Each structure stands twice: as C-alpha cells, then as structure tokens.
C-alpha cells in the first residue's frame, strides 16, 4: 500500500509525533497511518492500523 | 449479500439449554472471525462459516480465540463480555465479524457489521469491546 492510498478519502483528526521521530496520523474513521521520516526528510508508509469499537446489542 | 448486526436467533434458544458457557478458563472457547463485505450474515446465522471470511497476512482462518470475562451482574443486568482482541502485523480488510463457540459445534453467538470496510497494512487490527456495564455491555440480560 502507498501513502496516497492509505490516506485516500480519509479525514485526519490529529497527528502524533512518536518518540523515535515517526508520525502517526489518526483519522476520524478509526484508522491510524504510521509514517516514518528518515534523516533526509523522506517520508514512507510503515503501517496502517485500525481500531473498531464493537457496538453493544 | 450483506452483514446485518444481530444476536443470532439460534443462540437465544441455545443459552436456555446450556449450550454456551462464558466462564473464564473453564467455560466454552469462543472465537471471533472477520468477514468481507460479500458475506451474508444476520440473525438467522447459526454457525461459523469460512465463506467470505477474511484472508491475508496476519490472519488465520477461524479468527482469534477470545478471552472470556466470567458473566457478572451490574445491578439487575447480567453482563457477557470479552477482552479486546487484535491482529498484529496484519494486512487485511474486513466489514464485519462473527463470534462463535468452538466448544459447541461452532455455533454462532452474534454477528456485527462494522458499517464500513476497515483495512490494515502491516499494522494492527483491533476490536474494542464496549464497557461491561448494564448500559453498554456487548450482551446484557436485563
């Protein structure tokens, strides 16, 4: 998956800087996109996570 | 084809004839399987099916084994709950899920539609169960 696909049609709620310099973009739909930034400023997609809240019956 | 959230009708009868035991450690073994949007699951579902189940890195057919929370009372309501579960390092897409009982012929407990298809890429797919209270628990007998 590419960064463009990971972020396509997603609204970012907030961005979080990780202790190691990575960036986590938390999206309003429950996905979070983990980006790495190297010493030259190049950005790469590391992972796409998701948290789903199961609804009670 | 669609997933319609429901407590399975068969489960409502089965709990009355001791087919399911939610006790931690000594109870039944429950699993949760993920499904794509092409699955047909609803209140008439009676058992686990591999049809249209998710496939991909980090996901094993049949899904994750759940950790039971021994049922308890919150006021006058009995609470049935599980610990949250996750698929770490997964690359999968899912639209819904099914909880079923592997100790009782894979009989289904409930199915749920997530509302959208959710996707991970080398990431963690987390299912968070609701608070175990009379107002919000996954399954309540009031």
Please give a structural write-up.
The complex is a heterodimer of chains A (57) and B (142). Chain A is mainly β and 57 residues long. Chain A contains one helix and four strands, in the order αββββ. Chain A has one helix at 3-7; strands at residues 12-17, 23-27, 31-37, 43-53. Chain A has a four-stranded antiparallel beta sheet. Chain B is mostly beta strands and 142 residues long. Chain B has one domain (6-141). Helices cover 4% and strands 42% of the residues of chain B. Chain B has one helix spanning 9-14, and strands at 6-7, 30-35, 64-65, 68-74, 77-82, 85-90, 93-101, 107-119, 123-128, 139-141. In chain B, the strands form three sheets. Chain B has a five-stranded antiparallel beta sheet with strand order 1-8-7-2-3. Chain B has a three-stranded antiparallel beta sheet with strand order 4-5-10, with no helix packed on it. In chain B, strands 6-9 form a two-stranded antiparallel ribbon. The longest helix of chain B is centred in the N-terminal third of the chain and has 6 residues, at 9-14. The chains are: A mainly beta (57), B mainly beta (142).
The main pleated sheet of chain A reads as: 4 strands, antiparallel
Contiguous low-pLDDT stretches of chain A (5 residues minimum) are none
Which segments of chain B are poorly predicted (pLDDT under 50) over 5 or more consecutive residues?
none
Name the largest protein-protein interface in this structure: A-B, 20 and 27 residues
**What does the average pLDDT of chain A come to?**
93
Overall geometric form of chain A: elongated
- Strand neighbour order, sheet with most strands of chain B: 1-8-7-2-3
Instruction: Give, in spatial order, the strands making up the sheet with the most strands of chain A.
Output: 1-2-3-4
Helix percent of chain A reads: under 10%
| Biggest pleated-sheet summary of chain B | 5 strands, antiparallel
């Amino acid at each position: 998956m590419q960064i463009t696909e990971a972020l396509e049609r997603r609204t970012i709620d907030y961005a979080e800087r990780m202790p190691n310099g990575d960036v986590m973009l938390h999206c309003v739909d429950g996905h979070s996109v983990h980006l790495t930034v190297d010493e030259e400023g190049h950005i790469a997609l590391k992972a796409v996570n998701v948290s789903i809240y199961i609804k009670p019956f | 084809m669609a997933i319609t959230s429901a407590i399975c009708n068969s489960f409502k009868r089965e709990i009355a004839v001791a087919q399911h035991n939610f006790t931690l450690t000594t109870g039944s073994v429950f699993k949760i399987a993920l499904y794509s949007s092409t699955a047909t699951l609803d209140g008439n579902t009676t058992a686990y099916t591999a049809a249209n189940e998710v496939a991909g890195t980090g996901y094993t057919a049949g899904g994750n084994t759940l950790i039971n929370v021994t049922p308890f009372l919150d006021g006058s309501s009995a609470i049935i709950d599980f610990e949250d579960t996750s698929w770490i390092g997964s690359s999968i897409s899912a639209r819904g899920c099914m909880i079923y009982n592997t100790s009782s012929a894979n009989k289904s407990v409930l199915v749920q539609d997530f509302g959208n298809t959710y996707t991970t890429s080398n990431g963690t797919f987390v299912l968070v169960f609701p608070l175990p209270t009379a107002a919000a628990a996954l399954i309540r007998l009031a």
